[in-house]
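Board work, copied verbatim: Sphingomyelin phosphodiesterase
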Amino acid sequence: MEFIRRLLVVLCVATCCISVVSARSILQGSLDVLLNDVPENDESSSLSESVSGYRHRLEHSTDIQAIRWSLRKLNANELCEFCDVIVPVIRILVEINDTASFEAALLFVCREYKKIAFDVCIGAVDEYKNAVLEIIVKSPLNNKGLCALAFKCDSQFNYPLLKWNVTIPDKPKPTPRPPQPPSPSAPKLTLLHLSDIHVDFAYKPGSIGDCGKPLCCRDGQPGANQTGAGFWGDYRGCDLPYWTAEAVLKRIVEVEKDIDFIYYTGDLPPHNVWNQSRSDQLYSINTINQLLVTLFPNKTFYSAVGNHEAAPCNMFPTPSVRSENITWLYQALADDWIKLGLSPDTRQSILRGAFYTTIVRPGLRLISMNMNYCAEDNFWLFINSTDPLEQLQWMVNWLQYAEDHGERVHIIGHHPPSSCLAAFSWNYYKAVNRYENTIAGQFFGHVHSDEFTVFYDEVDSRRPVSVAYIGPSVTTYSSLNPGYRVFTIDGYYPGTSYWPLNHRTVIMNLTESNIQNKTIFHDEYNARDAYELKNLYPTDWSEFLDRLQNNIDGPMMKLVAQYHRKSHASECNHNCRRALLCRLKSARSEDPHACDSIPPF
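↓ predict structure ↓
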């Protein structure tokens, strides 16, 4: 979430700005040294002397009003420049171990930065400050590189430490064999995709929906001209009440009778990321998973871990981080996922890194990825982002195994690869290219809206090779109807492709549900019918993108924009449509040419 993931970095920057301004008379002569990564001892001594007395001078500084204004007015470019100057100072503050002053300054910023609720600010500082300080000290990236990652100030490809390559086995790539439609009488499978449930156990009907915090609908009484939180949920910055999530799941049990198995791609806890503990996360995970066990006693869930399962949110330490571990989470996931139907032989892999592989049906292998080890929100990757736990290499090795043994593969994960750090994203794209005959489907979540992305050949950029489906969220967060998706997949028979043949998206109309005080569901759309597709193969989706591109302001692109927001009314003008089309064409991050073919006007 953009708001929270940048918050602590802003606080650190602002804190050090206060220190620098207060100490300007002492530090003016050594500023050039501070801009380099390693200061000399005398400069460190001077800074230490300055910081030790800054509390007294803080409120009396002539620059405090300017700082207060700048914290509220900074745009992205200014923040990047600010970051470049201040990160060296943060390193020195940590080096001289003046943590008391540092924390006091953070509290000051929380009071002054009025756009962030004070309790949210304090909570975020408490949850993230130790990790961020450790990352700044231990990261091999220079100051500019840290700022480039934290604020997207520069291309990641400009920093050698962020570049790495996965090893593709030295075996010739087979001739591409695009999937062919099965006969009408061929067996089919039905797949349910659930993602981003985000249950808020503290949801309170009638409470304030516009509370100024990252998560609302939890407390307070709305004013005279305000509308309180709806009983079944709210379009504002609110997650889903438990009873609504339960109603959605019960509806699936009652109506979707033919489900064969379920892909379940993470994010169970709510968005109160400034105020979460390990016990909070475990309560959410265990409670929701137990509900699934109860409602779907004879179904197998193939699960992937989301970024919100961790505490703090997004923070998944890699093996190079000794001060923190995530075994508490992986042990809980292993227990719950096996209760939800996974084979017990997946436990060791889950305990190692919350990724695993298993057989779904004869000849169909599932690879579940922990995409938090590629996510740019996982600040621990700032220390070392080179294929954490060698997960991507592990995936490539299993894809090679599947190719050698004639298996098809479905890949699931939480973050789509387009939201990963660039090196991971491009290496993943390379693997999809190499194993295009083997990969029959990719399924992700995280973005909450309804999307897909098309992968193209790395040599012939017009030839599509794969499709990633990014499923709708169950939560309403933010301004969305709850939703889920049902796929029809080529079933088991000799020569099956196991490719998705169609999908249908179901939404709960929140407005109608709150008015009628009962859940109202609609089949939102059927992909082949709504988008006039012959099949759901890469060529079909690529040709669909061409149609959209040739008529961005036409009715079909309007429909895509509507379904993207799960049919909750919102305007999408030409620029909005163009940006959405670019997302659908961008399967890897920091691809400068993915959208070149889209008309600029």
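The two ends are 30 Å apart (CA to CA).
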